[in-house]
Design goal:
2 copies of one chain form a homodimer. Chain A is an alpha+beta fold. Helices cover 52% and strands 6% of the residues of chain A. Chain A has 2 domains: 83 residues, Glutaredoxin; 122 residues, Glutathione S-transferase Yfyf (Class Pi), Chain A, domain 2. Chains A and B meet through strand 4, helix 3, helix 4 and helix 5 of A and strand 4, helix 3, helix 4 and helix 5 of B.
Chain lengths: 242, 242
């Protein structure tokens, strides 16, 4: 199976959650957004595919994954599609619904991170909503960030062992996604994270452990891995990191 | 199978998307939040179940559905679990991933509706974020609301027929959810919807057709159906309906 990932070039964004699973599994995939426009890739190709031409099923937003005749959009949906195929989720139904539920909590978490710098609208510049962003970030850092982190700490503690995992007794795609969220938060809110990480040692340890997985570690130091930047979800605006 | 729904009492909220599927299918379920506290229900029972005691899997937020040994949380996750069991989604994999993707777009839509009145934080009163709410609602009504509605119109038009459906050639749980969103929007933003509905006739027609399905029509006029109110997702604040 040749997988094709459709995501905007230039930012890790939501596409990165899919890349992490594909890279960790060591499968081949074509990252359409990163191919130059001359060669049929780039933002133009992503945008065209979004409208669903060939199969008559328009999608709302990237990322989208094409796998043969099936096209799947939304991060959690793509990961539950890939999970069994990449051996990144347990076999039983109860664990798969549990994994998908955790991934959807991460989806909400990521969306709230995005809205710290865009509380009024994605179509406006950050500079045009700085005041509201400061206020929303205050509530985020004070209430929401600890709430989400403590939640995942509780999940890890409940699923205890020497090396706890979010689901079952091996790493799943949800662990890879939590790694990405923690890494993004360390970039965007370094002061808040430095204060909070000691309260969630299992979460911090999981993120560090995931980053050392063989193929993933190689990917993270390769030039395929995109740096966080101020065009993405996780942005470092020091004035929001209170 | 005896289903148990765990959701906060007093508001339709996200729990209503689950009720619509169960009611449309005519299956029995226990709505724990609506049972009195004396009898082991109510908000206390929902809150206790949230923490996942008996199975050691804490959930982040209601709704949760218990079906035998499986507990599922997040609306889209619950609906994809119920879909095949209630005969509310086609059989083939491609259609199921497509249905789940559409449902996740509705999840995002609903979350943006919520944030029109709570752009700074859910823990603050509306009255403490009115100014920001007015600004965010302006962008929502001007840009996001038409974008989402036109998207679903395009999906319906692409999947054409005399009576189009979002997925396949029969009503699915996604149609029931779109009905709920349109109904909520008519309550919360009556002026904006009156202006926009003529631009999205298939969406409006779908919502009306769903409301006339036998068991669903009976449910909607029963006292089990909760009215929209200013404690929920869809709130009517005339000053936000520009």
């Amino acid at each position: 199976m040749q997988y094709e990932l459709y995501y905007w070039p230039g930012i890790p964004g939501r596409g990165e959650f899919i890349r992490l699973a594909l890279e960790d599994a060591g499968v081949e995939y074509v990252d359409i957004g990163k191919i130059s426009g001359n060669k049929g890739g780039g933002a133009g190709a992503v945008s065209e595919f979004l409208h669903g031409g060939e199969i008559g099923r328009p999608h709302f937003a990237p990322p989208m994954l094409k796998a043969g005749d099936i096209v799947v959009s939304h991060v959690a949906n793509i990961l539950q599609f890939l999970g069994p195929r990449l051996n990144l989720v347990p076999d039983d139904d109860a664990s798969r619904y549990w994994a998908n539920g955790l991934q959807l909590t991460l989806t909400d978490f990521v969306s709230e991170v995005h809205d710290t710098h865009h509380p009024i609208g994605s179509s406006l510049y950050y500079e045009d909503q700085r005041e509201e962003a400061a206020r929303r970030s205050g509530v985020f850092v004070q209430e929401r960030l600890p709430k989400f982190l403590h939640y995942f700490e509780r999940v890890l503690s409940t699923n205890a062992g020497n090396e706890p995992f979010l689901v079952g007794d091996r790493h799943s795609y949800v662990d890879l996604s939590l790694f990405q969220v923690v890494t993004g938060l360390r970039y965007a809110f370094p002061r808040a994270m430095q204060r909070l990480e000691p309260e969630v040692p299992e979460v911090a340890a999981l993120a560090d452990r995931v980053s050392q997985r063989g193929r993933l570690a190689a990917y993270l130091t390769s030039d395929r891995r995109l740096d966080f930047n101020e065009g993405g979800i996780f942005r470092h605006y020091p004035e929001l990191d209170t």
